[in-house]
Amino acid sequence: MTLTQDALVERLSAIVGADKVRIDADSLETFGKDWTKVFEPRPSAIVFPKTTEQVQQIVLLANECGLALVPSGGRTGLSAGAVAANGEVVVSFDYMNQISDFNALDRTVRCGAGVVTEQLQMYAEEQGLFYPVDFASAGSSQIGGNISTNAGGIKVIRYGMTRDWVAGLTVVTGKGDILRLNKDLLKNNTGYDLRQLFIGGEGTLGFVTEATMRLERPPKNLTVLVLGVPEFDAIMSVMHKFQSGLDLTAFEFFSDKALAKVLARGEVPAPFETPSEYYALLEFEAETEGHLDTAMALFEACMEEGWVLDGVISQSETQAANLWRLREDISETISHWTPYKNDLSVVVSKVPAFLKEIEDVVVREYPDFEIIWFGHIGDGNLHLNILKPDALAKEEFFARCGKVSKWVFEITEKYDGSVSAEHGVGMTKKPYLSYSRSEAELAYMRAVKLAFDPNNVMNPGKVLDV
Protein backbone atom coordinates (compact mmCIF):
# COMPACT_ATOMS: atom_id res chain seq x y z
CA MET A 1 0.00 0.00 0.00
CA THR A 2 1.55 3.27 -1.13
CA LEU A 3 0.50 6.54 0.48
CA THR A 4 0.47 9.94 -1.22
CA GLN A 5 2.17 12.65 0.80
CA ASP A 6 -1.21 14.11 1.79
CA ALA A 7 -2.41 10.68 2.96
CA LEU A 8 0.87 10.11 4.81
CA VAL A 9 0.53 13.41 6.67
CA GLU A 10 -3.08 12.59 7.50
CA ARG A 11 -2.21 9.15 8.91
CA LEU A 12 0.75 10.47 10.93
CA SER A 13 -1.29 13.41 12.21
CA ALA A 14 -3.93 10.99 13.48
CA ILE A 15 -1.22 9.43 15.67
CA VAL A 16 0.73 12.44 16.98
CA GLY A 17 -1.40 15.49 16.10
CA ALA A 18 -1.17 17.77 13.08
CA ASP A 19 1.30 20.10 14.82
CA LYS A 20 3.79 17.23 15.23
CA VAL A 21 4.17 16.43 11.53
CA ARG A 22 6.31 18.59 9.25
CA ILE A 23 6.91 18.53 5.51
CA ASP A 24 8.29 22.04 4.95
CA ALA A 25 11.63 22.25 3.14
CA ASP A 26 13.59 23.61 6.13
CA SER A 27 12.44 20.80 8.43
CA LEU A 28 13.13 18.13 5.82
CA GLU A 29 16.65 19.49 5.36
CA THR A 30 17.36 19.93 9.08
CA PHE A 31 15.97 16.66 10.42
CA GLY A 32 16.93 14.52 7.43
CA LYS A 33 20.68 14.58 8.07
CA ASP A 34 23.42 14.25 10.67
CA TRP A 35 26.92 15.75 10.76
CA THR A 36 28.06 13.82 7.68
CA LYS A 37 28.03 15.52 4.31
CA VAL A 38 28.27 12.52 2.01
CA PHE A 39 24.55 11.91 1.35
CA GLU A 40 21.90 14.49 0.55
CA PRO A 41 18.85 14.39 2.85
CA ARG A 42 15.56 13.54 1.10
CA PRO A 43 12.99 12.55 3.75
CA SER A 44 9.28 12.54 2.95
CA ALA A 45 8.11 13.79 6.36
CA ILE A 46 9.26 14.45 9.92
CA VAL A 47 7.14 13.15 12.80
CA PHE A 48 7.55 14.03 16.48
CA PRO A 49 6.06 11.42 18.84
CA LYS A 50 5.75 12.13 22.56
CA THR A 51 5.15 8.62 23.93
CA THR A 52 6.30 5.05 23.41
CA GLU A 53 2.77 4.15 22.33
CA GLN A 54 2.87 6.78 19.59
CA VAL A 55 6.17 5.37 18.34
CA GLN A 56 4.53 1.94 18.29
CA GLN A 57 1.67 3.27 16.17
CA ILE A 58 4.13 4.85 13.73
CA VAL A 59 5.99 1.55 13.37
CA LEU A 60 2.74 -0.36 12.82
CA LEU A 61 1.77 2.18 10.14
CA ALA A 62 5.17 1.67 8.51
CA ASN A 63 4.61 -2.08 8.35
CA GLU A 64 1.11 -1.62 6.98
CA CYS A 65 2.07 0.83 4.26
CA GLY A 66 5.64 -0.17 3.45
CA LEU A 67 7.20 2.97 4.90
CA ALA A 68 10.85 3.26 5.90
CA LEU A 69 11.66 4.98 9.20
CA VAL A 70 14.85 6.77 10.24
CA PRO A 71 15.44 7.77 13.90
CA SER A 72 16.62 11.30 14.62
CA GLY A 73 18.15 12.48 17.88
CA GLY A 74 20.72 15.25 18.19
CA ARG A 75 21.87 14.52 14.63
CA THR A 76 25.53 14.59 15.68
CA GLY A 77 26.40 11.22 14.13
CA LEU A 78 29.46 10.82 11.94
CA SER A 79 28.53 7.73 9.88
CA ALA A 80 25.27 8.82 8.21
CA GLY A 81 23.28 6.55 10.52
CA ALA A 82 20.54 9.19 10.88
CA VAL A 83 20.43 10.39 7.28
CA ALA A 84 17.15 9.97 5.39
CA ALA A 85 18.37 9.88 1.80
CA ASN A 86 15.62 7.82 0.15
CA GLY A 87 12.24 9.28 1.04
CA GLU A 88 12.06 7.84 4.56
CA VAL A 89 9.89 9.18 7.37
CA VAL A 90 12.13 10.67 10.05
CA VAL A 91 11.07 9.92 13.63
CA SER A 92 12.43 12.71 15.83
CA PHE A 93 12.61 12.15 19.58
CA ASP A 94 12.93 15.84 20.51
CA TYR A 95 9.68 15.82 22.50
CA MET A 96 10.53 12.64 24.42
CA ASN A 97 12.94 14.53 26.67
CA GLN A 98 11.62 13.95 30.19
CA ILE A 99 13.75 12.81 33.12
CA SER A 100 11.90 10.93 35.88
CA ASP A 101 12.00 8.19 38.49
CA PHE A 102 15.29 9.15 40.10
CA ASN A 103 16.32 6.54 42.67
CA ALA A 104 19.04 7.69 45.06
CA LEU A 105 19.62 4.23 46.52
CA ASP A 106 20.01 2.51 43.15
CA ARG A 107 21.67 5.57 41.61
CA THR A 108 19.44 5.34 38.55
CA VAL A 109 17.24 7.73 36.59
CA ARG A 110 14.71 7.25 33.79
CA CYS A 111 15.30 9.21 30.59
CA GLY A 112 13.27 9.67 27.45
CA ALA A 113 15.21 9.00 24.27
CA GLY A 114 15.30 12.73 23.52
CA VAL A 115 17.06 13.75 26.74
CA VAL A 116 20.21 15.64 25.78
CA THR A 117 23.45 14.22 27.20
CA GLU A 118 24.33 17.47 28.95
CA GLN A 119 20.80 17.61 30.40
CA LEU A 120 21.40 14.25 32.07
CA GLN A 121 24.85 15.33 33.25
CA MET A 122 23.41 18.46 34.87
CA TYR A 123 20.54 16.53 36.45
CA ALA A 124 23.00 14.04 37.95
CA GLU A 125 25.07 16.90 39.33
CA GLU A 126 21.97 18.37 40.99
CA GLN A 127 21.51 15.03 42.79
CA GLY A 128 25.14 15.03 43.93
CA LEU A 129 26.00 12.34 41.37
CA PHE A 130 27.75 12.04 38.01
CA TYR A 131 26.97 10.74 34.52
CA PRO A 132 30.42 9.97 33.12
CA VAL A 133 29.90 9.41 29.38
CA ASP A 134 31.12 12.65 27.84
CA PHE A 135 32.18 14.01 24.45
CA ALA A 136 32.30 17.27 22.51
CA SER A 137 28.68 16.96 21.28
CA ALA A 138 27.22 16.49 24.78
CA GLY A 139 25.30 19.76 24.42
CA SER A 140 23.23 18.45 21.52
CA SER A 141 23.50 14.64 21.32
CA GLN A 142 20.59 12.68 22.80
CA ILE A 143 20.53 9.63 25.04
CA GLY A 144 18.62 7.52 22.53
CA GLY A 145 21.24 8.22 19.88
CA ASN A 146 24.06 7.61 22.36
CA ILE A 147 22.58 4.20 23.18
CA SER A 148 21.91 3.33 19.57
CA THR A 149 25.54 4.02 18.66
CA ASN A 150 27.05 2.92 22.00
CA ALA A 151 28.77 6.30 22.26
CA GLY A 152 32.19 6.40 23.91
CA GLY A 153 33.99 9.70 24.26
CA ILE A 154 36.77 11.07 26.40
CA LYS A 155 36.48 9.07 29.63
CA VAL A 156 36.24 5.50 28.33
CA ILE A 157 39.58 4.55 29.91
CA ARG A 158 37.96 4.96 33.36
CA TYR A 159 34.21 4.67 32.85
CA GLY A 160 33.66 2.59 29.72
CA MET A 161 31.12 3.05 26.91
CA THR A 162 27.43 4.00 27.04
CA ARG A 163 26.40 0.33 27.31
CA ASP A 164 28.08 0.17 30.73
CA TRP A 165 25.56 2.71 32.09
CA VAL A 166 22.29 1.36 30.68
CA ALA A 167 20.32 -0.42 33.41
CA GLY A 168 17.16 -0.99 31.37
CA LEU A 169 15.53 -0.10 28.08
CA THR A 170 12.11 0.38 26.57
CA VAL A 171 12.16 -0.27 22.84
CA VAL A 172 9.70 -0.57 19.98
CA THR A 173 10.79 -3.36 17.64
CA GLY A 174 10.43 -3.40 13.87
CA LYS A 175 7.32 -5.55 14.32
CA GLY A 176 5.77 -2.89 16.53
CA ASP A 177 6.19 -4.77 19.82
CA ILE A 178 7.01 -2.82 22.98
CA LEU A 179 9.76 -4.54 24.98
CA ARG A 180 10.89 -3.54 28.45
CA LEU A 181 14.35 -5.01 28.77
CA ASN A 182 16.31 -6.00 31.90
CA LYS A 183 13.98 -4.21 34.36
CA ASP A 184 16.92 -2.13 35.65
CA LEU A 185 18.50 -5.12 37.38
CA LEU A 186 22.19 -5.46 38.19
CA LYS A 187 21.91 -9.24 38.10
CA ASN A 188 19.59 -10.93 35.63
CA ASN A 189 20.65 -14.31 34.28
CA THR A 190 17.40 -15.23 32.53
CA GLY A 191 18.65 -15.96 29.06
CA TYR A 192 19.67 -13.63 26.25
CA ASP A 193 20.23 -10.00 27.22
CA LEU A 194 18.26 -8.43 24.37
CA ARG A 195 19.09 -5.00 25.75
CA GLN A 196 22.62 -5.38 24.39
CA LEU A 197 21.36 -5.92 20.84
CA PHE A 198 19.66 -2.54 20.82
CA ILE A 199 22.71 -0.81 22.33
CA GLY A 200 24.81 -0.10 19.26
CA GLY A 201 22.08 -1.35 16.92
CA GLU A 202 21.70 2.10 15.27
CA GLY A 203 17.91 1.80 15.22
CA THR A 204 17.98 -1.09 12.75
CA LEU A 205 16.19 -3.54 15.07
CA GLY A 206 13.85 -1.05 16.71
CA PHE A 207 13.81 2.35 18.35
CA VAL A 208 14.86 3.09 21.92
CA THR A 209 12.15 5.24 23.53
CA GLU A 210 13.21 5.24 27.20
CA ALA A 211 16.24 4.17 29.19
CA THR A 212 17.14 3.78 32.83
CA MET A 213 20.65 5.13 33.20
CA ARG A 214 23.05 4.42 36.04
CA LEU A 215 24.86 7.25 37.77
CA GLU A 216 28.14 7.39 39.69
CA ARG A 217 29.71 9.34 42.51
CA PRO A 218 31.22 12.59 41.22
CA PRO A 219 34.99 12.69 40.76
CA LYS A 220 36.92 14.95 43.11
CA ASN A 221 39.21 17.77 42.00
CA LEU A 222 39.75 16.67 38.42
CA THR A 223 43.16 17.87 37.31
CA VAL A 224 44.46 18.09 33.75
CA LEU A 225 48.00 17.74 32.42
CA VAL A 226 48.94 18.61 28.84
CA LEU A 227 52.34 17.31 27.77
CA GLY A 228 54.41 17.97 24.66
CA VAL A 229 55.80 14.73 23.25
CA PRO A 230 58.53 14.44 20.58
CA GLU A 231 57.34 11.24 18.88
CA PHE A 232 54.36 8.94 18.96
CA ASP A 233 56.12 6.00 20.64
CA ALA A 234 56.84 8.28 23.59
CA ILE A 235 53.11 8.83 24.11
CA MET A 236 52.71 5.14 24.92
CA SER A 237 55.64 5.28 27.34
CA VAL A 238 54.07 8.29 29.05
CA MET A 239 50.72 6.53 29.35
CA HIS A 240 52.30 3.40 30.83
CA LYS A 241 54.31 5.49 33.30
CA PHE A 242 51.35 7.52 34.54
CA GLN A 243 49.07 4.50 34.77
CA SER A 244 51.63 2.87 37.06
CA GLY A 245 51.08 5.59 39.64
CA LEU A 246 47.62 7.12 39.08
CA ASP A 247 44.10 6.03 38.15
CA LEU A 248 43.52 8.17 35.06
CA THR A 249 40.05 9.32 34.04
CA ALA A 250 41.23 10.26 30.53
CA PHE A 251 44.26 9.95 28.29
CA GLU A 252 43.94 11.72 24.93
CA PHE A 253 46.36 12.65 22.18
CA PHE A 254 46.44 15.06 19.26
CA SER A 255 48.98 16.12 16.67
CA ASP A 256 50.68 19.49 16.29
CA LYS A 257 48.56 20.14 13.18
CA ALA A 258 45.37 19.52 15.16
CA LEU A 259 46.54 21.95 17.86
CA ALA A 260 47.45 24.57 15.27
CA LYS A 261 43.91 24.53 13.87
CA VAL A 262 42.40 25.08 17.33
CA LEU A 263 44.86 27.84 18.29
CA ALA A 264 44.24 29.68 14.99
CA ARG A 265 40.70 30.42 16.16
CA GLY A 266 42.15 32.57 18.94
CA GLU A 267 39.74 31.34 21.62
CA VAL A 268 42.18 29.41 23.83
CA PRO A 269 45.88 30.01 24.49
CA ALA A 270 48.71 27.62 23.68
CA PRO A 271 49.54 25.36 26.63
CA PHE A 272 53.25 26.29 26.49
CA GLU A 273 55.83 27.66 24.03
CA THR A 274 57.85 24.50 23.34
CA PRO A 275 56.84 23.06 19.95
CA SER A 276 56.07 19.34 19.90
CA GLU A 277 55.01 16.89 17.23
CA TYR A 278 52.36 15.33 19.49
CA TYR A 279 50.52 16.26 22.65
CA ALA A 280 49.07 14.10 25.40
CA LEU A 281 46.23 15.22 27.67
CA LEU A 282 45.85 13.36 30.97
CA GLU A 283 43.12 13.77 33.57
CA PHE A 284 43.07 12.36 37.10
CA GLU A 285 41.46 12.91 40.48
CA ALA A 286 43.72 14.91 42.77
CA GLU A 287 41.91 14.01 45.97
CA THR A 288 44.96 14.72 48.13
CA GLU A 289 48.27 16.59 47.90
CA GLY A 290 49.81 13.16 47.55
CA HIS A 291 48.13 12.66 44.18
CA LEU A 292 49.54 15.96 42.93
CA ASP A 293 53.00 15.05 44.24
CA THR A 294 52.78 11.71 42.43
CA ALA A 295 51.74 13.41 39.20
CA MET A 296 54.69 15.81 39.38
CA ALA A 297 57.12 12.99 40.14
CA LEU A 298 55.84 11.03 37.14
CA PHE A 299 56.10 14.13 34.95
CA GLU A 300 59.71 14.69 36.00
CA ALA A 301 60.54 11.04 35.35
CA CYS A 302 59.11 11.33 31.84
CA MET A 303 61.14 14.50 31.23
CA GLU A 304 64.32 12.72 32.30
CA GLU A 305 63.62 9.88 29.87
CA GLY A 306 63.13 12.35 27.03
CA TRP A 307 59.51 11.28 26.54
CA VAL A 308 58.18 14.76 27.40
CA LEU A 309 59.52 18.12 26.20
CA ASP A 310 57.29 20.42 28.24
CA GLY A 311 54.02 20.40 30.14
CA VAL A 312 51.42 22.29 32.10
CA ILE A 313 49.11 21.25 34.93
CA SER A 314 45.78 22.93 35.64
CA GLN A 315 45.58 25.14 38.70
CA SER A 316 41.84 25.82 38.55
CA GLU A 317 38.63 24.50 37.01
CA THR A 318 38.77 27.28 34.41
CA GLN A 319 42.29 26.34 33.35
CA ALA A 320 41.35 22.67 33.25
CA ALA A 321 38.40 23.52 30.97
CA ASN A 322 40.65 25.55 28.64
CA LEU A 323 43.17 22.72 28.45
CA TRP A 324 40.36 20.32 27.55
CA ARG A 325 39.31 22.68 24.76
CA LEU A 326 42.66 22.07 23.05
CA ARG A 327 41.43 18.54 22.46
CA GLU A 328 37.63 18.87 22.35
CA ASP A 329 37.50 21.80 19.93
CA ILE A 330 39.33 19.87 17.20
CA SER A 331 36.27 18.28 15.55
CA GLU A 332 34.32 21.52 15.35
CA THR A 333 37.36 23.46 14.19
CA ILE A 334 38.23 21.16 11.29
CA SER A 335 34.61 20.78 10.17
CA HIS A 336 35.21 23.83 7.94
CA TRP A 337 37.39 21.63 5.71
CA THR A 338 34.75 18.87 5.25
CA PRO A 339 37.02 16.19 6.74
CA TYR A 340 36.96 12.58 5.61
CA LYS A 341 36.92 10.75 8.90
CA ASN A 342 38.22 7.35 9.90
CA ASP A 343 37.36 6.12 13.40
CA LEU A 344 39.70 3.19 14.02
CA SER A 345 40.65 1.07 17.01
CA VAL A 346 43.07 -1.67 17.97
CA VAL A 347 44.16 -3.02 21.34
CA VAL A 348 46.32 -0.41 23.06
CA SER A 349 49.57 -2.36 22.79
CA LYS A 350 49.31 -2.39 18.97
CA VAL A 351 48.64 1.33 18.57
CA PRO A 352 52.18 2.59 17.69
CA ALA A 353 52.85 0.06 14.92
CA PHE A 354 49.28 0.40 13.64
CA LEU A 355 49.42 4.19 13.44
CA LYS A 356 52.81 4.11 11.68
CA GLU A 357 51.52 1.79 8.94
CA ILE A 358 48.41 3.91 8.45
CA GLU A 359 50.45 7.12 8.40
CA ASP A 360 52.86 5.73 5.78
CA VAL A 361 49.98 4.89 3.43
CA VAL A 362 48.10 8.13 3.96
CA VAL A 363 51.11 10.40 3.53
CA ARG A 364 52.16 8.53 0.38
CA GLU A 365 48.72 8.66 -1.22
CA TYR A 366 47.60 12.12 -0.05
CA PRO A 367 50.71 14.31 -0.47
CA ASP A 368 48.50 17.33 -1.21
CA PHE A 369 46.01 16.75 1.65
CA GLU A 370 46.36 17.87 5.25
CA ILE A 371 46.18 15.01 7.75
CA ILE A 372 44.91 15.55 11.30
CA TRP A 373 45.35 12.88 13.99
CA PHE A 374 43.72 12.82 17.41
CA GLY A 375 41.98 10.29 19.58
CA HIS A 376 41.32 8.43 22.78
CA ILE A 377 44.68 6.76 22.98
CA GLY A 378 43.93 5.26 26.40
CA ASP A 379 41.41 2.87 24.81
CA GLY A 380 43.14 2.36 21.46
CA ASN A 381 40.82 4.63 19.45
CA LEU A 382 42.42 6.78 16.73
CA HIS A 383 40.67 9.44 14.65
CA LEU A 384 42.22 9.98 11.23
CA ASN A 385 40.91 13.12 9.54
CA ILE A 386 41.78 14.05 5.96
CA LEU A 387 40.94 17.68 5.17
CA LYS A 388 39.45 18.69 1.84
CA PRO A 389 41.37 21.39 -0.06
CA ASP A 390 39.14 24.39 -0.68
CA ALA A 391 39.54 24.16 -4.46
CA LEU A 392 38.61 20.47 -4.70
CA ALA A 393 35.00 19.43 -5.31
CA LYS A 394 33.42 17.41 -2.53
CA GLU A 395 32.58 14.50 -4.82
CA GLU A 396 36.14 14.17 -6.14
CA PHE A 397 37.56 14.51 -2.62
CA PHE A 398 35.40 11.71 -1.18
CA ALA A 399 36.14 9.51 -4.20
CA ARG A 400 39.90 9.88 -3.72
CA CYS A 401 39.61 9.21 0.02
CA GLY A 402 37.46 6.16 -0.60
CA LYS A 403 40.16 4.52 -2.72
CA VAL A 404 42.75 4.76 0.04
CA SER A 405 40.25 3.71 2.72
CA LYS A 406 40.48 0.18 1.34
CA TRP A 407 44.20 0.11 2.19
CA VAL A 408 43.59 1.69 5.59
CA PHE A 409 40.99 -0.96 6.42
CA GLU A 410 43.22 -3.76 5.18
CA ILE A 411 45.78 -2.62 7.74
CA THR A 412 43.02 -2.45 10.35
CA GLU A 413 42.03 -6.01 9.55
CA LYS A 414 45.67 -7.12 9.78
CA TYR A 415 45.81 -5.76 13.34
CA ASP A 416 42.43 -7.32 14.29
CA GLY A 417 41.03 -3.84 14.72
CA SER A 418 37.69 -2.13 14.16
CA VAL A 419 36.75 0.10 11.23
CA SER A 420 34.38 1.94 13.58
CA ALA A 421 35.46 2.30 17.18
CA GLU A 422 32.69 4.61 18.41
CA HIS A 423 30.98 6.41 15.52
CA GLY A 424 28.88 3.48 14.36
CA VAL A 425 28.50 2.03 10.88
CA GLY A 426 25.56 3.84 9.31
CA MET A 427 26.03 4.16 5.56
CA THR A 428 29.59 5.47 5.37
CA LYS A 429 31.21 2.44 7.03
CA LYS A 430 28.79 -0.22 5.76
CA PRO A 431 30.88 -1.11 2.68
CA TYR A 432 33.84 -1.86 4.94
CA LEU A 433 32.15 -3.89 7.67
CA SER A 434 33.69 -7.14 6.42
CA TYR A 435 37.13 -5.89 7.47
CA SER A 436 36.04 -6.20 11.10
CA ARG A 437 33.34 -8.89 10.93
CA SER A 438 33.52 -12.39 9.46
CA GLU A 439 31.00 -13.60 6.90
CA ALA A 440 29.52 -15.90 9.52
CA GLU A 441 29.04 -12.96 11.91
CA LEU A 442 27.40 -10.89 9.19
CA ALA A 443 25.01 -13.73 8.40
CA TYR A 444 23.96 -13.94 12.05
CA MET A 445 23.55 -10.16 12.18
CA ARG A 446 21.20 -10.29 9.18
CA ALA A 447 19.21 -13.06 10.83
CA VAL A 448 18.87 -10.97 14.00
CA LYS A 449 17.74 -7.99 11.92
CA LEU A 450 15.03 -10.03 10.22
CA ALA A 451 13.84 -11.49 13.53
CA PHE A 452 13.11 -8.05 14.96
CA ASP A 453 12.28 -6.23 11.71
CA PRO A 454 11.05 -8.71 9.07
CA ASN A 455 9.72 -5.98 6.76
CA ASN A 456 12.91 -3.90 6.95
CA VAL A 457 11.17 -0.70 8.00
CA MET A 458 13.64 0.32 10.73
CA ASN A 459 16.48 2.49 9.42
CA PRO A 460 16.93 0.35 6.28
CA GLY A 461 20.26 0.51 4.46
CA LYS A 462 22.18 1.25 7.63
CA VAL A 463 24.82 -1.09 9.15
CA LEU A 464 24.07 -3.94 6.71
CA ASP A 465 21.79 -4.86 3.82
CA VAL A 466 19.27 -7.66 4.14
N→C terminal distance: 21 Å
What is the structural class? alpha+beta
Strand content: 15-25%
Q: What does the largest sheet look like?
A: 7 strands, antiparallel
Strand order of the largest sheet: 13-10-12-11-15-16-14
Enumerate the spans where pLDDT stays under 50 for 5 or more consecutive residues. Answer: none
Tell the overall outline: globular
**The CATH class of the largest domain:** Alpha Beta
Number of strands: 16
Average pLDDT confidence is: 96
CATH 2nd-level architecture of the largest domain:
2-Layer Sandwich
Radius of gyration: 23 Å
The helix fraction, in percent, is 25-40%
Pfam families: FAD-oxidase_C, FAD_binding_4
Protein name: D-2-hydroxyglutarate dehydrogenase
Organism: Parathalassolituus penaei
GO biological process, one term: respiratory electron transport chain
Care to give the gist of this entry?
The chain is of the alpha+beta class and 466 residues long. It has 15 helices and 16 strands.
